[in-house]
Design goal:
- It is a single chain.
- By secondary structure, the chain is of the alpha/beta class.
- The protein has 12 helices and 9 strands.
- β2, α3 and β3 form a beta-alpha-beta unit.
- It is globular, with a radius of gyration of 18 Å.
- The two termini are 24 Å apart.
């Protein structure tokens, strides 16, 4: 099996990330979000019944304005940036965006469910992608895309399949995990979140947690969803602002995506300064008292950046990829 690697970041970036984690732990507050997802478009070819993104009409930013958002996230100390949608490959400028983001001092995660991946210049795109996440599940009605994995793992990125589990599909989960293992891909598991204006397909919590933890023991190097996530689902306040979401207009969802509140826009506000201010602190207080148990999954949206143990459980699946980093690219996409 090919062993994909990650680009090298500067030592200053690693020290800065460690310092940010230290501040979160010391203050017991997820002030610094080391993980961010940026929805570069809400357009999508799928109409998943558990998703409310595809019918949003939020306008997208022009390429140069996207660059400004990416710059802001770098200055704020984001360590892992997920470019997603909707379907990001529907943007004609996605290659330019990836080249620009790939030269930044953060790792790039790219999420897609496009059926035509084999027809896309994915080997070229993956020069600027550290983690290629491909959404495959019954909700997307694209289980046939598992057959693409043996090809995808040779594109150069760490390939991970995102599986959204609806309550009626839990028994079929192990087969999906096994297919990821056999292809040399990783797998991230999440429940069908109860989003606004969608039907509830959230699986039974006891059964979901029990099955996911069993499969993690059976496939320890395949499933990368952190253990604390599966237990946080059962807690009154399991989520945190350790990760953030930016909408396609540059608006920051805060404190979380399901609240649909966008108090600031990253075209107008310096993210780092705002997060350390009183307004953001008040939003975090509101999150701590939220009684909605929606099961929203953000990659590290539990206590991953406020607990030393959880930090390790989040990064350990990638340790071999970190030890064999690939070279960082410049703005022209050259290594």
């Amino acid at each position: 099996m090919p062993v994909s690697s990650m680009k090298s970041l500067s030592l200053r970036t690693y020290f800065r990330a460690a310092s940010a984690i230290g501040e979160n732990i010391r203050k017991k507050d997820a002030i610094n979000p080391l993980y961010a997802s940026y929805k570069v478009t809400n357009r999508c070819n799928f109409r998943c019944k558990f998703c409310n993104v595809w019918f949003e009409k939020t306008p997208v930013l022009e390429t140069e304005l996207v660059y400004r958002v990416l710059d802001n996230l770098e200055r704020a100390g984001v360590f892992l940036l997920s470019l997603e949608g909707g379907e990001p490959l529907l943007r004609d400028d996605i290659g330019d965006i990836l080249k620009y983001a790939g030269a930044k001092e953060y790792y790039i995660l790219f999420t897609t469910s496009d059926r035509s991946l084999s027809e896309q210049p994915m080997a070229e795109f993956c020069r600027n992608i550290d983690f290629l996440h491909i959404s495959i599940d019954e909700g997307h009605d694209n289980l046939d895309m598992f057959s693409l994995l043996p090809e995808a793992v040779h594109w150069g990125s760490i390939v991970c399949v995102q599986v959204v589990v609806m309550k009626e599909n839990l028994p079929a989960l192990e087969d999906k995990v096994a297919r990821c293992r056999d292809a040399g891909a990783k797998c991230v598991i999440m429940p069908a979140v109860e989003l606004n204006r969608t039907r509830n397909h959230f699986p039974d919590l006891d059964a979901f947690q029990r099955e996911c933890l069993r499969l993690k023991r059976k496939y320890p190097r395949t499933i990368i969803s952190p253990d604390p996530y599966f237990t946080a689902l059962r807690e009154p306040h399991g989520c945190s602002t350790g990760s953030i979401i930016i909408d396609c207009d540059g608006g920051l969802f805060y404190p979380c995506r399901t609240s649909e509140s966008k108090p600031v826009n990253l075209l107008d506000v310096e993210l780092h300064d705002w997060l350390h201010g009183e307004e953001a602190k008040e939003y975090r207080r509101q999150m701590a008292t939220c009684d909605r148990r929606c099961g929203w999954y953000q990659y590290y949206a539990v206590s991953a950046f406020t607990s030393p143990v959880h930090v390790w459980t989040s990064i350990s699946p990638y340790i071999w990829n970190v030890l064999a980093p690939r070279k960082k690219q410049n703005h022209n996409g050259k290594r």
